[in-house]
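Thread: quick sanity check before group meeting

JM: Hey all, I'm pulling together slides for Thursday and realized we never actually wrote out the predicted structure for the chain we discussed last week. Dropping the sequence here so it's in one place. If anyone has concerns about the input, flag it before I start.
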Amino acid sequence: MLPTFRPGLRFEWQYTVPPRATVPELYHDTPFCRDMPDVLATGYLVGMMELACLHGMMPYMNWPQEQSLGTMVSFSHFAPTPPGMTLTIRGEVTEVEARRVRFRLEAWDDVEPVCEGVHERCLIDSARFAEKMAKKRAAWCSEL
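JM (edit): ok, ran it. Output follows.
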């Protein structure tokens, strides 16, 4: 991570909500969800909030050797968004401590605010992480 990546850094990212991001489509294999409103699913919105942070970090990272993974989310989703609307997500880096980065985020659709909260990510070395996952898979496979 470049030293210029520090608290106070702000970013903005936009994303148009696809039909696959709605409750009935995202949870299509759960019968009662097929009858739910055709609006952006909270689970998908959380992913978009995470992705906005990753986009905000990318210019400061040695990609793909250095990446980040989400480790904590705390969001309030307080307004529905139909597919086709564009989300505008604004974020700010609030804390950088070793490999841990914390963000404050807000999201709006084309009409109103829809979400706010905090997110935390951890920087990883891609090669080292891949080695850890290979060991975990090998241990799991040996137990089958």
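AS: nice. Residues 79 and 112 are 8 Å apart (CA to CA). The first strand starts at residue 10 and ends at 16.
JM: adding both to the slides.
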